[in-house]
């Protein structure tokens, strides 16, 4: 009972006095007792001495059993009201019992005691007697209406909220523990089944949001001043909390994720593919066993990389936690990375050799396109088409590169590297041969007696082209010297090697070691015709000087100028020498893709050297590229 409901209790008790009297009368009448036989004479005699009460007792005694039963029902309803108010504190039950008791007592009282109105009873007594049901009904209704139900309900509800908060906390703790155990390694698996992981996380967050919502509802109930609203809200919270099942939610999320994970495993690990720099797939089946197979943690025997998906799917179906799958996935990914690193490491030198060969072939194409010589058709047959069965042309080199790529994709790395490097060497030979032949027309026009053949050019290339050289120029006889180190020219005016020689292909000269092997010939070359020949050092002898000269020219070249001209007296002494300047002129002059012309007025001061870049090239870029090419060739 509420501590503030004393007045309502008194009102209820006062309303029950006439009901208790009526109940006693009813029980005595029903069981055939009188006041004398029941021993109530000391109480009954004073009461019955009042005329109105005596007459009322006579009327009541003559009432039927039904009426007496109704008086019994009225008393029971009054008692029920008291129990609903003071014991169970149930508002609706108290209202119902009070209403039933008051209405029945009021109606039955006036119905049963109506004959008293015609009896010879003092009016004051009669009025007081008829006021009894009115007062009793009013007191009953007052008691139930003014009872502090809101306070009672709020106290009751407040006591339940702590219990509900504890249940919410327990549910959250149980869910988090079960989720962490079941979905261990979720971050790793996000790479395999990103959509599935997203759904799992969203589902878990939704469940936690529902728990947070219940906590918010509980806090809101605490602030309510309406007890009935608080009770209804509490019932809603209890219903929602009863509908939450962390274990069932975990299983639901796991079932959905298992399907997404299986699909992701089949997609990601169904077949192991490594692609080369050329976009082609490697045949990883040809890799060593320790690369193409691995043992999966939690699985059985070692499996091929193309079948790891079956092991991973089995783990996903049978494991109590997805953590085992995550561990296995990490192991597979690490092994795959090792395999890819192995392939990339073995692939790199092959790709580099292939790229070098292809760049050299592009250089060859540029050289041949820029050459306008009478023997150009024969150059194409020998250097490009490979018409001579004993000599490889660019077409043969490209075929060799195709074989290298095929071997590479078959994971035959050693063979691929050997084939690619061989192709690169063959392409270098073709480029060197084309460089030499590109200088022949200038040498012939200058009536040079001979041109040295670089040691890296096989004799067969020059011998295959010499007949076309003879046929392309009237009055010229060209032959390859017996040692294979020179092309000698004889003109119809009798000029020959005995009269003087020159090496117009000095940039193609070999290193000192190579030149010493060719019939004891000297590294040095000669310039000039007839009896005025002057010896000029080979590029290998003046490498540092030529590099220094290119650096000076590169620094002095203005990108806005079409032509760069340098006075020899303005150059450093180490640059303004015949050996350096002639080698610069010859090397730069052969770079037809960079320079339109290179003119050395005189190899000794006073004089100048003039560079005209090719169409579309700037003088600064042409000079820088020529500098780089010379350094790559001779250092």
Structure, explained:
- By secondary structure, this protein is mainly alpha-helical.
- Among the domains are: 3-147, no CATH class; 152-270, no CATH class; 539-634.
- Helix content is 63%, strand content 6%.
- It contains 23 helices and ten strands.
- The chain has helices spanning 6-30, 41-48, 51-61, 65-86, 91-112, 123-146, 149-182, 186-189, 194-222, 227-242, 246-269, 289-292, 308-318, 323-370, 376-385, 394-409, 413-438, 440-445, 459-472, 512-516, 543-556, 578-590, 619-634; strands spanning 293-294, 303-304, 450-452, 476-480, 486-491, 525-527, 534-536, 564-567, 595-600, 608-613.
- The strands form four sheets. Strands 3-5-4 form a three-stranded antiparallel sheet. A three-stranded antiparallel sheet has the order 8-10-9, with helices on one face.
- A hairpin with a 5-residue loop joins strand 4 (476-480) and strand 5.
- Helix 1 (6-30) packs across helix 6 (123-146), helix 14 runs antiparallel to helix 16 (394-409) and helix 14 (323-370) packs parallel to helix 17.
- It is rod-shaped.
- It starts with 5 loop residues before the first helix and ends with a helix.
- Residues 492-537 are annotated as: Disordered.
- Residues 515-524 have a biased composition (Basic and acidic residues).
- Keywords: Membrane, Transmembrane, Transmembrane helix.
- The chain crosses the membrane at residues 12-33, 67-88, 94-116.
